[in-house]
Amino acid sequence: MASQDTSTRSSAYKVPSRELGNSILCGSNQSAIADSRCRPFNPFVPRKSFNAGLKMINNYLHFFINRVQSLSSSDKDTKEEGYTFLHALSHYTSSKQVMRDQLVSILLAGRDTTAGTLSFLFYELSRHPEILAKLRNEIIQRIGPDKLPNFDDLRDCSYLQKTLSETLRLYPAVPFNMRLALKDTTLPHGGGPDGSQPIGVLKDTPIMYAVMHLQHNPHYYPPVSPEFPDIDNFCPERWNRWTPKPWTYLPFNGGPRICIGQQFALTEMGYTVVRMLQKFERIDRYWKDGEMILKSDIVMAPANGVRVGFWEATSAKRQEL
Ligand code: HEM
Asked: Cβ distance 233 to 227 under 8 Å?
């Protein structure tokens, strides 16, 4: 009952549609709901492609697990280049299954999230040459045309940080999520004729929530003004003097299950953007507005990729800035 209410309310929120196209294909979350609804028929749900995919992932991972397990203890201990998460794991467990599960967990959480976010970031830069120029200018001024950025460099590039925040605001990498009530409880809103009263939630009720809708709901933002353009617009400058209200901006979630890779992700993505923009000064887009389709299989990504062309900066121009 509670989950039904939640989905009815969230469908009233405005999903970005102005230029993005209005399609969000949501695979795994829907299958999670379907799974819980057709529990007695679960054994009859066809899983051929799922099992084939699983086999491919396992074969791939076991190759690396076997390689690390065949190393001597001193080789495993080497902290030089080439020391990986898997080497660290091999000290913690000798179980192939545990290693495989830990690897899948980190690969799932850490790869598509950052890859998808960077795709959306470069997509937006290709649509906004003025933002690209401002961002590149900051990078060249503060870090230079060739230098590898360190952690302090990235932190000092405030426009870069705002551009990342703005990307994660419009395109939260985990757009839909789910929790299961462990005991009978209430939620503060969602009940009553207008949804403003508390609502009861029985133990074992799955509750879907949508960070995507939350972050696209005008109710949680200041009114539109010259400093705060329409919330559907990509505008890193809106972060100059604005901080989101608590629990209204949640790309990394919050509370006990907050993303443990948040700092790593922001550093990794910032580093990638710096290295790309040190080398390239122009990004052309090879599609029209409205062609972007959002796809979410747990992690959100552009359904048809991002077709852009990067133009290398000439060395003269790199010095000039
Ligand atoms: C743009 C980048 C990223 C975003 C937006 C993101 C977002 C999230 C979110 C929303 C959750 C909570 C999921 C839930 O509560 O159900 C989460 C969990 C997690 N993330 Fe990230 N993540 C990112 C990158 C990374 C990276 C790079 C790593 C590691 C290398 C990572 C590791 C994890 C792990 C291990 C969890 C599970 C934590 C737990 O359940 O206690 N994430 N992430």
From this structure: no
Q: What is the C-alpha to C-alpha distance for residues 212 and 54, in angstroms, rounded to an integer?
A: 28
Q: For 118-177, what is each residue's pLDDT tens digit? A: 999 999 999 999 999 999 999 999 999 999 999 999 999 999 999 999 999 999 999 999
Domain ranges of the chain: 7-45+110-176+211-320
Cα-to-centroid distance, 167 and ligand 1 (Å): 16
Ligand 1 centroid–CA 197 distance in Å is 32
Residue 211: alpha-carbon gap to chain centroid: 11
The two structure tokens encoding residue 171: 């395109």
At residue 321, the pLDDT reads: 55
> What CATH superfamily is the domain 7-45+110-176+211-320?
Cytochrome P450 (1.10.630.10)
CB 127 within 8 A of CB 288: no
Are 168 and 251 in contact, with CB atoms under 8 Å apart? yes
pTM of this structure: 0.85
